[in-house]
Design brief:
Layout: E1 2-5, H1 35-41, E2 46-51, H2 55-67, E3 72-77, E4 92-93, E5 112-118, E6 125-129, H3 139-143, E7 149-150
Parallel strand pairs: 1-3, 2-3
Antiparallel strand pairs: 4-7, 5-6
């Protein structure tokens, strides 16, 4: 089982829920209900919690849960980008390194778009990051096999860290 904890109830309009530390009226702090102890209290022996924006962690978490013989729960934690209080600078594509393999497009991020620059070897268009849509999560950068998707030069860490 996978529980995707984004600190919001996204499918119904980003309402608050017991997993955040503010009251519904946002006028005072409230007790946050942690998902992992709740799942363990239901008798689940194998619970793995990972950073939703760290591709390697998520993959390893899935593998660990799949090896378990009984019910296992993977909890991915990562604040919903639409309610994030931590905006990050946009990533960029180094077109000299990009081989137009299109692995980054498979992430499904709306910020990863097709550039007008073509790869001379395969004739495919290279990737480009739309800075108005990029939230700095770094997922595209983590899957790029050539390291062509580079972090912002500001020195701020990505959401994966």
């Amino acid at each position: 089982m996978v529980i995707m904890d984004n600190s919001s109830t996204a499918m119904t309009g980003h309402q608050d829920n017991p997993g955040i530390d503010w009251s519904v009226t946002k006028d005072r702090k409230a007790k946050k209900v942690e998902i992992e102890p709740l799942v363990r209290a239901m008798g689940v022996e194998k619970v793995v919690t990972v950073n939703a924006f760290n591709v390697k962690e998520v993959k390893e978490g899935f593998e660990e849960c799949l090896k378990f013989d009984s019910t296992a729960v993977l909890i991915t934690k990562g604040e919903c980008i639409f309610v994030s209080r931590k905006p990050k600078p946009a990533f960029t594509v180094n077109t000299d390194k990009c081989i137009a393999c299109h692995t980054c497009f498979k992430v499904g991020c709306p910020a990863v778009v097709i550039d007008v620059v073509k790869n001379e070897k395969n004739g495919k268009f290279k990737a480009k990051i739309d800075p108005t849509l990029c939230n700095g999560c770094s997922v595209c950068s983590q899957v790029c096999p050539t390291g062509a998707i580079e972090p912002p030069k500001s020195g701020k860490e990505s959401l994966a860290e």
